[in-house]
């Protein structure tokens, strides 16, 4: 009879897992992969810049706003 009481009391207790160690491992893996990853250079927009020291040949036109 004593065995049945212990079995009942064991069934009533909910089992919980501590999630903190798993979250720590996930963050450590995330940091590791972010640091160790090599990023591929993305091609940008090609712009022709004027040579240094020369003034801009195209002067901006005035802006007229009518209301």
Automatic annotation (TrEMBL):
Signal peptide: none annotated. It comes from marine metagenome. InterPro entries: ExbD. GO terms for cellular component: plasma membrane. Keywords: Cell membrane, Membrane, Transmembrane, Transmembrane helix. The keyword Transmembrane helix applies. GO terms for molecular function: transmembrane transporter activity. This is Biopolymer transport protein ExbD/TolR. It is found in: Cell membrane. PANTHER family: BIOPOLYMER TRANSPORT PROTEIN EXBD-RELATED (PTHR30558:SF3), EXBD MEMBRANE COMPONENT OF PMF-DRIVEN MACROMOLECULE IMPORT SYSTEM (PTHR30558). Its main location: membrane. It is a single-pass membrane protein.
């Amino acid at each position: 009879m004593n065995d049945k009481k212990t079995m009942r009391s064991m069934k009533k207790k909910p089992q919980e897992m501590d999630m903190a160690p798993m979250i720590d491992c996930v963050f450590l893996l995330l940091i590791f992969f972010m640091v160790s990853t090599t990023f591929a250079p993305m091609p940008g927009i090609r712009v022709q810049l004027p040579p240094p020291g020369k003034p801009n040949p195209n002067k901006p036109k005035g802006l007229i706003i009518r209301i």
